[in-house]
Amino acid sequence: MAKPHDPSKDNPETRRARLILSLRSQGVSDPGVLAALEQTPRELFTPDLFMERAWEDSALPIACGQTISQPFIVGLMTQALTLEPRCRVLEIGTGSGYQTAVLSRLSRLVYTVERYRTLLGEAEQRFKALGLGNVITRFGDGAEGWPEQAPFDRILVTAAAPGEPKALLAQLKPSGVLVAPVGRGPVQALKRYAGDGEGGFREEVLCDVRFVPLLEGVAREL
Fold this sequence. Notes:
Layout: H1 12-25, H2 31-39, E1 60-61, E2 67-68, H3 71-80, E3 88-92, H4 98-104, E4 109-114, H5 117-130, E5 135-139, E6 152-157, H6 166-169, E7 172-182, E8 188-195, E9 201-209
Parallel strand pairs: 3-4, 3-6, 4-5, 6-7
Antiparallel strand pairs: 1-2, 7-8, 8-9
């Protein structure tokens, strides 16, 4: 009797192709987003302990108690931004840099803020290794955004805001888009805020998600 197929034994190219097909079947249909995900080597952002799972559609632990997001969520949030090549994007929460790298392939400039100096340093090394010259990093309080560089065409928040992220919405262009998890509990609502061009926003709930909370200030690390 033939042994059952073990997907973990497949080569990285096969795993990558399987993941992209899975994302497409789940509703990540934008060709540009799928191409950016396929071209971004997730294994570069994955801790050695979890390297065999780099191309699984699951969140994985990284340093400082954070995670590298599930590829489906990365794809869904990126797609919801409706990015254009000339967009200036603000990302709150650099983390491993995986989401940042995906954004960089679809935007003119990505400004990314991280409150953990350790994570930011590691992410910066990955950006350099990939030759991502359109990523600008900042160690600081993500809840405050990046007022000096505002307004932005798009804003992506990779931590859960307790309520409407007013300080960040204020840094968005009138016709811009902000995507963020919102809520205080273990399960939050992934929301899309689209500017109406007159200072207001149309709010849309995309799905339920689980993110670490958006904390104020910078982290104290040992």
